[in-house]
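Bumping with the actual sequence this time:
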Amino acid sequence: MQHLQGLAVLLVLQSIGEVLARLLKLPFPGPVVGLVLLLAALRVDWVRERVGAVAQFLLTHLSLLFVPIGVGVMTHLNVLSEYGLRLAVVVVLSTWICLAVTALVLRALMRGLPQRDNADG
């Protein structure tokens, strides 16, 4: 029963996030708003227990969630064989660019922090 209640909590929060994103014309997708609502809701013990139970259940069956992706790749194998190398290059380059930008932003943000002495313990 906890699994169904946890799944219901997740679906309700995602639906509320969708509604809020559309009504308020937010620049974020509804599921992101739902995740922020979930973060706030996890402070409640009842919600944490239910969502924890369904999360554990979903994690044990995580491999099943990859079946649709595998079927999609198999059905579009011709596209992958035609553009596979280009897609791989784009994925690798975009990952490297993202890592570099993240490192530069982190470096810039850390410059603004006050320096701490190592002797403070």
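The tokens above came from a reply further down the thread. The radius of gyration is 21 Å.
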